[in-house]
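Below is a filled-in request sheet from our internal design queue. Each sheet records the structural input a requester submitted and the sequence that came back. We keep these sheets so that new team members can see what a complete request looks like end to end.

REQUESTER: design group, bay 2
PRIORITY: normal
MODE: inverse folding
CHAIN LENGTH: 194
BACKBONE (tokenized):
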């Protein structure tokens, strides 16, 4: 079984989403014998933003990296995505990664009846760290966007682990992290479809 672990926070060791994604991945490693984990730090090793030259394949190194990103995504049975909320949405580095995996003919296709996702059968755990509290808020453009783009690619097994209000006070941060850690999903709770 393969797990793809993505982190997008720019906060390094001070990142709540990085702390929580590491906990999710460690838990899955303990529960799944022989789990293969691929990791990409989208801050330290960002995927270039999509440009016209990207589509033209002008830069061979960029094209090679884009294909590697696609192959890692397609091969993954489980994705653990660290998605801190930046300005009510996701970091641009995570959006750049999405732009490389949401590709017509590879992860979705258009038919006469509309789009069809081609990347189903994956389990996705999104770790969302938020300075404020945005669950069920019209200001949350993060979770609805991620649910939509994943569903568009055929992925409907999506779970969110949230740490909210972490910027309110040190106590809020501590409580939010403790709450998120107590809510971490386990492999046994929902087996990935084989």
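RETURNED SEQUENCE:
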């Amino acid at each position: 079984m393969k797990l793809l672990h993505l982190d997008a926070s720019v906060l390094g060791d001070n990142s709540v989403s990085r702390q929580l994604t590491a906990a999710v991945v460690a838990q899955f490693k303990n529960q799944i014998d022989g789990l293969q984990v691929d990791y990409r730090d989208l801050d330290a090793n960002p995927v270039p933003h999509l440009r016209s030259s990207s589509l033209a394949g002008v830069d061979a190194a960029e094209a090679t990296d884009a294909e590697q990103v696609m192959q890692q995504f397609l091969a993954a049975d489980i994705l653990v995505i660290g998605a801190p909320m930046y300005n009510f949405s996701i970091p641009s580095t995570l959006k750049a990664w999405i732009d490389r995996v949401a590709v017509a003919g590879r992860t979705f296709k258009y038919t006469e009846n509309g789009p069809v996702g081609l990347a189903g059968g994956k389990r996705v755990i999104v770790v969302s760290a938020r300075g404020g509290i945005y669950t069920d808020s019209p200001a949350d453009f993060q979770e609805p966007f991620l649910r939509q783009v994943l569903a568009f690619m055929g992925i409907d097994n999506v779970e969110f682990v949230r740490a909210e209000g972490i910027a309110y006070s040190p106590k809020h941060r501590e409580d939010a992290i403790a709450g998120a850690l107590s809510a971490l999903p386990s492999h046994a709770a929902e087996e990935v479809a084989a």
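SHEET NOTES:
- The longest strand covers residues 123-130.
- The mean pLDDT is 93.
FILED BY: M.R.
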